[in-house]
Design goal:
alpha/beta, Spore Coat Polysaccharide Biosynthesis Protein SpsA, Chain A, 8-stranded mixed β-sheet, two-stranded antiparallel sheet, 7 helices, 10 strands
């Protein structure tokens, strides 16, 4: 069973306001992202890791059928949130998507294309989207790597796993038109750029 962990615990310091709640095409950014994941039939369980403004994030996602887990250490790095999500995975989960909460242009088509590549590779594979030579998110990770993530890579994050086990990493190439979908937004300038690509 494939699950998804949506990382939505950030403090949005550089944005100056909670970026997950900023409107994109009439929806809060986090709702657009979760909606894209939920539209993929192969994803059976979605866990949203919250932190700052957790109650507000949970409120805008009411009705999406997702589970919530709070990261008590949301002042920490992304790895702490990922570990919270892994702790909440059901035992039947065999692989999980790591989805960033600040990529509001992501589509279900990108996710489904990544998932479609999964059966063609080893059950222990880590699938990473690749656009114009650059890796991005979401990443599909086999649950065989959970112990390594839970006990290692402090101060490095998930990229430490990719470096430590390169034989398991599979780059899944996407056309350059997918680059906008993998853009994140950390600053007001990033947000304005994402709004400007509406309709592309």
């Amino acid at each position: 069973m494939i699950c998804a962990i949506v990382l939505a615990a950030g403090k949005s310091v550089r944005m100056g306001t909670q970026k997950l709640l900023l409107p994109v095409d009439g929806q809060p950014a986090i709702a657009r992202i979760v909606g894209a994941v939920a539209a993929c039939p192969a994803v059976r369980d979605i866990i949203v890791v919250t932190g700052r403004d957790g109650s507000k994030v949970s409120s805008v996602l009411a009705g999406y059928g997702v589970s919530f887990v709070a990261n008590p250490d949301y002042d920490g790095d992304m790895l702490s949130s990922l570990r919270c999500g892994i702790d909440a995975l059901p035992g039947s989960c065999t692989a999980f998507l790591v989805v960033l909460g600040d990529q509001p242009r992501i589509t279900s088509k990108l996710i489904e294309t990544l998932l479609a590549a999964h059966p063609r590779h080893s059950p222990s594979a880590i699938l990473v989207p690749l656009v114009a030579g650059r890796r991005g998110h979401p990443i599909l990770v086999s649950t065989v790597h959970c112990e390594s993530i839970m006990t290692g890579f402090d101060g490095i994050g998930l990229r430490g796993l990719l470096t430590a086990d390169p034989e398991s990493v599979v780059d899944v190439p996407f056309p350059e038109e997918y680059a906008d979908q993998m853009r994140d937004m950390d600053t007001p300038g990033d947000y304005e750029q994402l709004l400007a690509i509406k309709g592309k």
